[in-house]
Design goal:
- The structure holds 2 protein chains of 2 kinds.
- Chain A is of the alpha/beta class.
- Chain A has 2 domains: about 10-105 and about 160-290, Glutaconate Coenzyme A-transferase; about 125-160, no CATH class.
- Chain A contains 12 helices and 12 strands.
- Chain A has helices spanning about 10-20, 35-45, 60-65, 85-95, 110-120, 135-140, 185-195, 205-210, 245-260, 260-270, 275-285, 285-290, and strands at about 25, 50-55, 70-75, 100-105, 125, 145, 155-160, 165-170, 180, 195-205, 215-220, 225-230.
- In chain A, strands 1, 2, 3, 4, 8, 9, 10, 11 and 12 form a 9-stranded mixed sheet that branches. A 3-stranded antiparallel sheet of chain A has the order 5-7-6, with helices on one face.
- In chain A, about 50% of the residues are buried.
- Chain B is globular.
- By secondary structure, chain B is of the alpha/beta class.
- Chain B has one domain: Glutaconate Coenzyme A-transferase, CATH 3.40.1080.
- In chain B, helix 2 packs across helix 7 (about 225-235).
- At the A-B interface, helix 4 and helix 5 of A face helix 3, strand 9 and helix 4 of B.
Amino acid sequence: MPPTSPKLMPMRDAIARFVHDGDTVVIEGFTHLICFAAAHEIIRQRRRDLTLCRLTPDLVYDQLIAAGCARKLVFSWAGNPGVGSLHALRRAVEKHQPPSLELEEYSHFGLVARLSAGAAKLPFWPLRDYQGTDLPAVNPLIRGVTCPYTGDAIATVPALNPDVTIVHAQRADRDGNTQIWGLYGVQKEAAFAAKRVIVVVEEIVQEQVVRADPNRTLIPGIIVDAVVCEPWGAHPSYAQGYYDRDNDFYVEWEDISRDEAALKRWLDAFVYGVADRAGYMHELGPERQQRLTAKPQISAGVNYGF
Amino acid sequence: MAVRAARELHDGDVVFVGIGLPNLACNLARATHAPGLVLIYESGAVGAVPDRLPVSIGDPALVTGSLAVASMADVFQFYLQGGRIQVGFLGGAQIDRYGNINSTVIGSYDRPKVRLPGSGGACEIAIHAERVIVVAPLSPRSFPATVDFITSPGQNGKYGSRQALRLPGRGPVRVVTDVGILEPSQADGELELVALYPGVDAESVMKKAGWPLRVAPTVTVLPPPTQAELHLLRDVLDPNHLYIGKRDA
């Protein structure tokens, strides 16, 4: 075994060290690899005044909003995918139920472009978008430039450089060289755009495992500050090849989140009432774990020889 | 509506697929007249062949056996903005007389009566896909004369025509409803009734739009779903009837 990397740490330490009150936080993952384990630790450590950015706030930000961690939400599609609404978010927006929540809204392309600019250290990103829509009227950060070559009017969005990005992945080595397969959304851009990066993985592997298949490495260790090993850390989201999305829980969230008291009871039982992810999985029970465990569908390797 | 939407697709089309009815329509088309259909999901799955009905747009079954997995930056910049998508499906809470779609808010933006999910990729699909097929049941509430918020641009409206805005795609070219089909007029892009399902009369349809709905000079009657299509939908593609009621088939 190689010596323990200074980056390898429990979730509790990673959140305590790298997520601060008032930070701009990105927990990405498009349906796939959404790090609920990190969000729950942020709730347990009672972070406040966060600016939460994600294309799809999903249940993960609905929970952070319900727990009072958020001051502002930057997003592009705020629903419960395939089910309906995010009710904690809707209560904050429609009824201004405390804490009130500031919104900054884009389309998916706009938010992807913001992270691309952030990752590339450009002040803005050009895109052919937003003509004929009301989005620029409600978001003054959506602007435009005249192309210096063609004279075309092109929309622009400003760079987004989060204080911290949290990426969930299948595996990484102890230095944070991180391998992802399946849908990888905007994880790479979100990581490169951030000042600090926490990688949370299903398993830590030896460096040789990464080196044996370098094309699968999406995030290099050189930009990673903390590596956390947290099996089932994405549940109820999923990790391709490890466990399926818990679609039943996404449906259950409709009733839980609609009722403020039920939501509070859920947070008490599954977030405040457990010490860590292992405790959450224990609460969830073995039956669900068994049902969601992925069946094998192994990819053939390739020849990296020369 | 699922059958009708499926029939709007041509073999070989590259389709940007959403969840729900559009997904069902695409898989029906693939199983019938359009085996060469290429399904692209905004989550990044390209050439997906889901062997279960995906309940989310990022379902793991979209990845298993797909042709490629693209980053979302690639999906929006290269596939969509790059002009590689022939068909995009859109729905929404409100659709107006020019096919502008609202999926953002009911009421005012700052004090919304209902906060809807927002654009997602809808805005750029409406701008870039070569043709957009809108699928929604027709009612005065969902089809007002003007929408409360334009999330996805249609053919015309307060910002001018698509031509004036120089939008690359043709926008909503067909609106598939539960009673028939609307299409933008050549003159000003206003949606008009061009086709009816069997047994539906134009008179009753006109009452279902929030503006005086024009009827095209010739209105065709659409052929009913075949037994084969209904069997595929009800027994194979959506056996638990997640997305189809009897009426929708």
